[in-house]
C-alpha cells in the first residue's frame, strides 16, 4: 500500500519541497472527492472488488459438496481434498477465510445450505459503509501562497557550504554492472593508409609488398632493426637536446 502510494506521487517527489507537499495535498484532496462520489453509486452492501472475488468463490463452490453436522460445522469435499468449515468461528481449514476475511469457496458451499446472503460472513472492513467512513472526512481547500499569513520570524537562510575533506572527485562513480571508462578512442570505421605503398585499407605490417621482402631473408629484417634503432637514437638525442635547453633556461 505504501509502495503504491509512492508510485502514485512519484512525479511530485521530484519537485521542490513546498511544491511537492502542495501537489500531494491536492492529489489526495481529489482522490478523496473521487472516492466519495464513486461509492454513492454502489447499491450492494459489499465493495465491488470484493464482490468480484466472491463471485469467483461462488463459481468454484459449484464443485464443492458440503455435509453439515447440525451445529454450523461442515465437511466440504473439494475434488480430492476435504476441508472443515466452522460458521460459528468463521473459519475454514484452507485458511483463506481467516487470512483475507473473504469467504472461500468451501465456506460458500456451506453457507448456501442456510442462506443466499453472503455479506454477513465477509469482514466488516469490506462493506460499503466502512468505505464511506474512510472517506467521510475531506481536506479543506487552501489559499495560494499570496494568501498565506506572513510570519514575524526571521526568514530561514540557505545552509552554509561545507567543504568536505579530500580532493573533490572528477570522475563519477560507476555502477558495478557498468563497463569501465574507455581510455582509448576506438579506431573502428577510420581509414588506414599504408606507410610503405601509400594505399588505403591496410597498414605496413599487412602490406602485400612485404611478401616479396620477407622472401629475401634475415638480411632485410636486420636492416629494419637497424633503422628502428636509428630512429630510437634520434628521439633520444632530441629529448637530450630538450633537457639541455631546459637546464639552460633554469640557469638563466
Ligand atoms: Zn476454504
Ligand atoms: Zn602497402
TrEMBL record:
<feature type="compositionally biased region" description="Polar residues">
    <location>
        <begin position="210"/>
        <end position="252"/>
    </location>
</feature>
<dbReference type="InterPro" id="IPR006564">
    <property type="entry name" value="Znf_PMZ"/>
</dbReference>
<dbReference type="GO" id="GO:0008270">
    <property type="term" value="F:zinc ion binding"/>
</dbReference>
<keyword id="KW-0862">Zinc</keyword>
<feature type="region of interest" description="Disordered">
    <location>
        <begin position="146"/>
        <end position="185"/>
    </location>
</feature>
<protein>
    <recommendedName>
        <fullName>SWIM-type domain-containing protein</fullName>
    </recommendedName>
</protein>
<feature type="domain" description="SWIM-type">
    <location>
        <begin position="83"/>
        <end position="115"/>
    </location>
</feature>
<dbReference type="InterPro" id="IPR007527">
    <property type="entry name" value="Znf_SWIM"/>
</dbReference>
<feature type="region of interest" description="Disordered">
    <location>
        <begin position="208"/>
        <end position="252"/>
    </location>
</feature>
<dbReference type="Pfam" id="PF04434">
    <property type="entry name" value="SWIM"/>
</dbReference>
<keyword id="KW-0479">Metal-binding</keyword>
<keyword id="KW-0863">Zinc-finger</keyword>
